Amino acid sequence: MDISIIGAGHVGLVTGACFADLGNQVLMVDHDRARIAKLKRGVMPFYEPGLEELVRRGMAERRLRFTASVRDGVEHGLIVFICVGTPSRPNGDADLSAVEHVCHQVAKALRTYRLIVEKSTVPVETGEWIKRTMRLAVPRKVPFDVASNPEFLREGSAIHDFMQPDRIVLGVESARAKSLLAELYKPLTTSLVITDVKSAELIKHASNSFLALKISFINAVAQLCDRVGANVVKVAEGMGLDRRIGRSFLDAGVGYGGSCFPKDVAAFIRIAEKLGYDFELLKAVVRVNQDQRQVFVKRITQALWNVSNKTIGVLGLAFKPNTDDLRAAPSIDIIRLLQQEGARIRAFDPKALAQANGLFQGVTFCKDVYETARGADCLAVLTEWNEFKELDFARIKTLMRQPVIVDGRNLYDPAALQRLGFRYVGTGCGHAAR
Ligand code: UGA
């Protein structure tokens, strides 16, 4: 099929590259000419495992092309996906001005039937606004449909999530829209949830908010574990084996971050508020998540007695492994709080150092874990990168000023580290109580 994708960000580019790989003719559109020029040379705007290979293959096989022109996009694609950004406003509202702008451009370029699909994460009723806005701007009553097809891609495993989805949600209002999207997704064998546009929009916000809720729930349980000397990893295992609960997203840690959960939970609270419902449950989710950063800093303070003038080696800056994304990363708040206490920070991240350079002040960036440990009074683990899992701790101990590890991701075996002479503080593992 001929499809166009407007917005070559994380969602758009992954979606476009995957659809091209499935044999479709894909035209990617982005108003950022520099980004388009780089993509044409095979240079990715961000790190996502496997994406570069997929894009280059699509280009080599002439199924994936790039342009800065929405007009070309509308001409090419029978299905036009809108994947532009919907950032947060200070009050939590999603800023939909980019979506509106694209709608005007698409409408003006419409010459024959097109299916317009919103894939950006948007508040419920955005589909209605898209339809209304386009109707006013479309020349000569050209027919079109608007559908919602939310994405459920995680950064770091986005290609896997696209190719092997748990479900595909299609919010459609006509038989034509339904059959076009069903045809496009035919190669991916999974459950199709076919519904109206508003329900599809709600599925996205409700799913992300529910996952955030699971994380805050287990982080709250971790607080209790720390107070009584229980182990949250075991509690999560015991809960998770109940199929009604499930084990995933029950890893206690430094709280969720990234470009999705913080923004989407805030937006869902605002959507509810505007509809006259006080979503108190989600407000508590946000509160627990924010507290989690402070709790982590407190663990470090308790382990070191005084933080002032001590050196903290931070392992991991990205909001999660396999990405260089620092948006709303817990590392930002945690490093700021530690610096406010007078700590010196050394830090290492396998992929996010280039992005981190402009973002953090007064941080010494290191080339690896061992360099980070040199002279440190404490190692603070913020991201569960695979390469942090197997380390030469005997060597690390000789490099550090004090052998203290505060583990925000429960990566290590406490007993093994204690045997080596480390003071080890995990998350919800009861060590804070001792
Ligand atoms: C999330 C959703 O998982 C995707 O389904 C969705 O498509 C995407 O948002 C989006 O809306 O675009 P993502 O933000 O890439 O994906 O990352 P997640 O893997 O969901 O992790 C989010 C945060 O939660 C990370 O900071 C992670 O460290 C944290 N987390 C996750 C925990 O603290 N504990 C867990 O058990 C799981």
Describe it:
With 434 residues, the chain is α/β, with parallel strands linked by helices. It is 45% helix and 14% strand. It contains 17 helices and 14 strands. The chain has helices at residues 10-21, 33-40, 51-60, 70-76, 97-109, 126-137, 158-163, 175-184, 197-228, 232-240, 261-274, 280-304, 330-340, 353-359, 369-373, 393-399, 414-419; strands at residues 2-6, 25-29, 64-67, 79-82, 114-118, 144-148, 167-171, 191-195, 311-315, 344-348, 363-365, 378-381, 404-407, 423-425. Strands 3-2-1-4-5-6 form a six-stranded parallel beta sheet, with helices on both faces. Helix 5 packs parallel to helix 6 (126-137), helix 9 (197-228) crosses helix 11 (261-274) and helix 9 (197-228) packs parallel to helix 12. The radius of gyration is 24 Å and the shape is elongated. It binds uridine-5'-diphosphate-glucuronic acid. Uridine-5'-diphosphate-glucuronic acid is lined by residues 121, 151-155, 208, 211, 215, 249-251, 253, 256-258, 260-261, 264, 319-320.
